[in-house]
């Protein structure tokens, strides 16, 4: 598999991911946990990379960009999105253009894991793509009012043990949550 898309999301009990173009919850410890998890690399000379949609980009404060200190790819149809003042941030107008960059031999040396950071359309596209590898879901055991939701997870996944994840129910910021990892069962054989 040349490219491996890994979805990463924090979802509420009602499958919400966003509200008024922000997160539906204020859970700093859990968000920091996500950040630390996404930033981990085996090769310390490389960074991980996160792809997300323009609305998620807009939802970030200036000092949060690039998100999680990773290389950021932003998908938009607009021609006027200026990210030149941010390091390690790139704008693309299609998945094909992003993939061309991701497989560029020089650029490939810079990154390790490809995270798909949302929102809804990107999660759905990525999990149905031939490049879908895993979905990492931080599942909150609490209802939060939301207006953007995680799409239905595809059927061709099985839950896996990833030794990096904490086992069982966790408790932070006054909320119970669980970290799940799901893997595509249709992965190419080699
Ligand atoms: N809980 C979590 O883990 C999590 C993660 C991420 C985001 N969020 C939340 O989710 C909400 C934002 O998500 P969202 O689903 O509304 O929006 P989004 O996915 O962040 O952005 C959608 C935009 O992405 C661009 N786009 C998507 N597919 C494209 C394609 N194939 N080609 C070109 N451009 C494309 C378009 O931008 P243009 O309109 O510019 O063309 C589209 O309007 C916010 O509330 C955010 O806080 C939560």
UniProtKB/TrEMBL annotation:
EC number from the UniProt entry: 1.5.1.3
Domain DHFR, chain residue ranges per copy: 6-154
GO biological process: one example: one-carbon metabolic process
Gene Ontology annotations for the cellular component aspect, listed alphabetically: mitochondrion
Enzyme class name: oxidoreductase
Keyword annotations: NADP, One-carbon metabolism, Oxidoreductase
Origin: domain of life: Eukaryota
Pathway noted in the entry: Cofactor biosynthesis; tetrahydrofolate biosynthesis; 5,6,7,8-tetrahydrofolate from 7,8-dihydrofolate: step 1/1
Tagged with keyword Iron-sulfur: no
Protein's UniProt name: dihydrofolate reductase
Species for this entry: Henosepilachna vigintioctopunctata
Source lineage: Eukaryota, Metazoa, Ecdysozoa, Arthropoda, Hexapoda
